[in-house]
């Protein structure tokens, strides 16, 4: 990949670096309330120049949004990023690692225990017209779906939004998946295309974007437009709890196979996820929540209440493919909380296999503008002076494929078995 990241779907283990001791803060709603601890000096992190250059390019792309957006994590202000953004535009070839060390410091949020899943750009069979073998609608936004900003009605509800529809004189929740699939929006939502397989369309919604392979061999790209306002439920967690998936079946591929083998039960369990995604046609590769094209092996989804969108992240994970630098350019319906990430792998068979089976655990550090931690802690913590020409740090040697590392499970939603970039 352009990032220098190598992957083919196999699990090659590695030993994560340890987080600094820190007790998790119960009920934390932002990075600031979760607690902050200095991370390692960046010269200690095994970042090769190629990966650093890919991260620098994605960071530079994100800079306009990073400086313009309100950082809901409470960590930074737009102006904090100005020096790094200016330098990112002028860093010469071969100087990406030095750029990172000069302008960033590593910060641990909460206990630093990270959990990362994966997403990708799926490719599914579809047709622009309904025809035999293509019967599953891929909907655009319905004309009766309404977004409501509750902050316009009460300052106590600032930042909260809901979606629904008008029914007579009442505002009610929008139709759920079962209602939509049984015809509730047939007269209110345009159909962009017709899919050939219900499970494939379901996971197109889970991923949030994808390529539709049309009967003539051409492609149509679709991306997330909006969602029906219902809560997302990961069906893999339900299936595991009910004993429907055996060993080796808990990946996305295993779930799809089970649905194909049990079509009636599969339809019912997919409908337990009441969330439903609506798409728009794209004329570019997939874009993330910041509005920029996401890059395989570089971009990741994060919770903006804990990570400033556009910021670099370093993951030290129990899988080599997940370990390294990522840029937070996206969000996800299942990506909630501190140190919870969804890594993007691009398109194709290897990306599908890697993302579908990704469940990496380890330690995460945010890379924030130098001086951020001292400002937030009143000078209690300060990053060490940067080393501009550090000695090369060898990448940790590969370990044979191993069972999941003996780290305690992270504090994540049990429904996060399959992640989604949908906002």
Structural features, described:
By secondary structure, the chain is α+β, with helices and mostly antiparallel strands. Helix content is 22%, strand content 24%. A six-stranded mixed β-barrel has the order 3-16-13-15-14-17. The chain starts with 30 loop residues before the first helix and ends in a 47-residue tail after the last helix. It is an enzyme of class 4 (lyase). One of its GO terms (cellular component) is outer membrane.
Average residue pLDDT: 87
- The shape, in one word, is globular
Helix and strand succession? HEHHHEEEEEEEHEHEEHHHEEEEEHEH
Poorly predicted runs are 385-423
Tell me the Rg in angstroms: 22 Å
Treating each run of at least 4 consecutive H or I residues as one helix, how many helices? 11
Characterize the largest beta sheet: strand count, sense, and whether it forms a barrel.
6 strands, mixed, barrel
CATH superfamily label of the largest domain: RlpA-like domain
Helix content: 10-25%
Strand proportion: 15-25%
Distance between the first and last residues' Cα: 26 Å
**CATH fold topology of the largest domain:** Barwin-like endoglucanases
CATH top level class name of the largest domain: Mainly Beta
Structural class: alpha+beta
- What is the topology, as strand order, of the major beta sheet? 3-16-13-15-14-17
InterPro entries: 3D_dom, MltA, MltA_B, RlpA-like_sf
Region (Disordered): 1-25, 385-423
GO molecular function: hydrolase activity, hydrolyzing O-glycosyl compounds; peptidoglycan lytic transglycosylase activity
Keywords: Cell wall biogenesis/degradation, Lyase
């Amino acid at each position: 990949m352009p990032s220098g990241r190598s992957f083919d779907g196999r699990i090659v283990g590695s030993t994560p670096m340890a987080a600094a001791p820190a007790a998790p803060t119960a009920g934390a709603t932002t990075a600031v309330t979760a607690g902050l601890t200095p991370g390692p000096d960046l010269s200690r992190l095994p970042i090769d120049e190629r990966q650093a250059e890919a991260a620098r390019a994605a960071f530079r792309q994100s800079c306009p949004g990073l400086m313009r957006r309100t950082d809901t994590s409470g960590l930074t202000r737009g102006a904090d990023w100005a020096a790094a953004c200016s330098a990112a535009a002028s860093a010469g070839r071969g100087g990406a690692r030095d750029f990172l060390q000069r302008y960033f410091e590593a910060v641990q949020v909460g206990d630093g225990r990270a959990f990362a899943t994966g997403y990708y750009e799926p490719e599914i069979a579809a047709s622009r017209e309904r025809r035999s073998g293509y019967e599953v609608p891929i909907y655009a936004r319905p004309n009766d779906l309404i977004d409501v900003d509750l902050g316009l009605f009460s300052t106590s509800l600032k930042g909260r939004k809901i979606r629904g529809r008008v029914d007579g004189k009442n505002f009610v929740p929008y139709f759920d998946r079962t209602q939509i699939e049984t015809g509730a929006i047939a007269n209110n939502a345009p159909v962009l295309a017709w899919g050939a397989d219900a499970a494939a369309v379901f996971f197109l919604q889970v991923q949030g974007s994808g390529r539709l392979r049309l009967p003539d061999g051409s492609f149509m790209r679709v991306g997330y437009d909006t969602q029906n306002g219902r809560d997302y439920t990961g069906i893999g967690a339900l299936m595991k709890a009910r004993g429907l998936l055996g060993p080796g079946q808990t990946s996305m591929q295993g779930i799809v196979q089970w649905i194909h083998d049990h079509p009636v039960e599969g339809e019912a369990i997919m409908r337990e996820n009441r969330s439903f995604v609506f798409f728009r046609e794209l004329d570019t590769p997939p874009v993330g929540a910041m509005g920029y094209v996401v890059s395989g092996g570089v971009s990741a989804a994060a919770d903006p209440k804990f990570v400033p969108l556009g910021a670099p992240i370093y993951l030290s994970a129990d899988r080599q493919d997940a370990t390294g630098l990522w840029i937070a350019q996206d969000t996800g319906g299942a990506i909630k909380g501190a140190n919870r990430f969804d890594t993007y792998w691009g398109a194709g068979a290897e990306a599908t296999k890697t993302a579908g089976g990704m469940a990496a655990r380890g330690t995460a550090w945010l890379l924030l503008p130098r001086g951020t931690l001292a400002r937030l802690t009143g000078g209690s913590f300060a990053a060490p002076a940067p080393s501009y020409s550090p000695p090369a740090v060898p990448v940790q040697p590969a370990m044979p494929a191993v069972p999941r590392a003996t780290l305690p499970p992270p504090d994540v939603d049990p429904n996060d078995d399959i992640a989604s970039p949908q906002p």
